[in-house]
Amino acid sequence: MMGRRGAGRDLQPIAEINVTSMVDVAFTLLIIFIITAPILQGGIEVAVPRTDVSSLTADENSLIITWDRDGVVYLGETPMDRTEFHASFPQIAANGDFDSVWLKGDSLSFLGGFIDLMGTIQAAGFAVKIVAEQRPRR
Questions:
Q1: Nearest residue to 66 via CA among 121, 29, 122
Q2: Nearest CA among 70, 55, 59 for reference residue 108
């Protein structure tokens, strides 16, 4: 038995840190964040028209109304049809705490419905600001 105890004393401790598993976890988290970041941005995704526009930023007291190509109106994140929007927007405008209204419409949507929304917003006393994307430079 004495021989076994003496043999264990000859082993030197290993002073290396194995970082392979830590790197694997870090890359896995990085991939998860890359995939989920665009999902967490929020808002309704529409293909806004491209034109020569100047950059503007919406402040915190802005209401964004989205009109998609299927004719669905989104008041913030809440979907509704056009008749429901016409009935409820004057009440929302009277009781809301927003200063400006941004109208974001899909470039492939029906123009008459978009103009109809503009009329309802203007009738409630708000100037309509239309969201567009900057046309790429040639």
A1: 121
A2: 70
* Residue numbers of the domain that contains 126: 50-134
List Cβ neighbours of 56 (8 Å cut-off, separation of 6 or more). Answer: 129
State how far the Cα of 3 lies from the Cα of 18, in Å rounded to an integer.
32
pLDDT in tens, 80-101: 988 898 898 889 888 888 888 8
Does the pTM of the predicted model rise above 0.85?
A: no
User: Tokens for 101?
Assistant: 């209204």
Number of domains, the chain? 2
Please indicate, yes or no, if residue 45 is contained in any of the structural domains.
no
Question: Residues 61, 111: one domain?
Answer: yes
32 with 66, same domain: the answer is: no
Q: 76's torsion region: left (phi>0), alpha (psi -120 to 50) or beta?
A: left
